Amino acid sequence: MDSNRFFSMTTHPRIIEGETAASGARVAIVAARFNAFVVDKLVSGALETLHAQGVRDENLTLVRVPGAFEIPLAVKKLAAGGGQDMVIALGAVIRGETPHFDYVAGECARGVSRVALETGVPVAFGVLTCDTVEQALARAGGNAGNKGADAALAALEMVNLFRKLG
């Protein structure tokens, strides 16, 4: 998107945007083991993207947690510890026959968001909340792309934006 299209031809505001180049970024990925057949594809997409953007393995940490409900606590521990420039949360919550989905998905999203706001560390939300397994697989490398890769790009962009903002 061209940010300049929002301004008249006579104004030239200062526009600050992040790039996705890594330049030494320290990245943690928190990934749920529950629904691993989906989450592992998200992790692969995130890792491929991070490597393509120049993140080296020595700057990558992958933390596995039991499920999506546990993601926010691990994200908080990593973000508050000061050793990471960004954290990427990856998981898959697939609707079942009970309201369990609503509680897990909502609390995971709320918790991850709260961590980012409290710590100031960019946290990308790559937790799928889908009605069906087919929808989840489509978003984990299928015809709807790979939301793990998308989350990695968003996290990199935010880190670089924060570096520019000082």
First-last Cα distance: 24 Å
Secondary-structure element sequence?
EHEHEHEHEEH
Question: What is the fold-level CATH name, i.e. the topology?
Answer: Rossmann fold
CATH level-four homologous superfamily name: Lumazine/riboflavin synthase
Oligomer: single chain
User: What class would the helix/strand composition place it in?
Assistant: alpha/beta
Low-confidence stretches: none
User: Roughly how many Å is the radius of gyration?
Assistant: 17 Å
Number of strands: 6
Q: At CATH's second level, what is the architecture?
A: 3-Layer(aba) Sandwich
- The number of distinct structural domains comes to 1
| Overall average residue pLDDT | 93
- Enumerate how many helices there are, as a single number: 5
DSSP helix fraction: 40-55%
| Fraction in beta strands | 15-25%
The CATH C-level class name: Alpha Beta
Description:
This protein has helices spanning 36-52, 71-80, 100-119, 133-139, 147-165; strands at residues 27-32, 60-65, 86-94, 123-130, 140-142, 145-146. The protein has 166 residues and is α/β, with parallel strands linked by helices. The protein has a single domain (23-64, 71-165), classed as Rossmann fold (3-Layer(aba) Sandwich). The longest helix is centred in the middle third of the chain and has 20 residues, at 100-119. The mean pLDDT is 93.
